[in-house]
Amino acid sequence: MTSPESQELDQGGVQTAVIYARVSTDDSDQTVENQLPLCRAYCEKYGYRIVGEYSEEHTGSTINRPKFLEMLGRLSLGDVNYVVVYDQSRLTRSDEPNGDFKYVQKLINDRHALVRFVATDIDPK
Known about the structure:
Structural class: alpha/beta
Distance between the termini: 20 Å
Strand content: 15-25%
């Protein structure tokens, strides 16, 4: 298996990303329409080539969300370095063992991708 860093080399130095945007039906502070441009700008800032965008209106208390599961399927192809999300609450809001952030992060990392958050703009490297 390759790590995201070695994928970067395998792809000729081009880093790839998918964007995931989510809103809850009762969340008036966030919209997909305000998350996507910020995520796209983040990708542009870091030179990530966007290879997919996934957005949905669904509760974050479960991982059984159609677009989230579709995104995981895309990550399984092994050619995506990063999942770019506005903030952690857009990825998951669950305290359940099969939906908490560490579990969701593991699902993504197991597919050889890393999570990046636009709102904090922190690169864990």
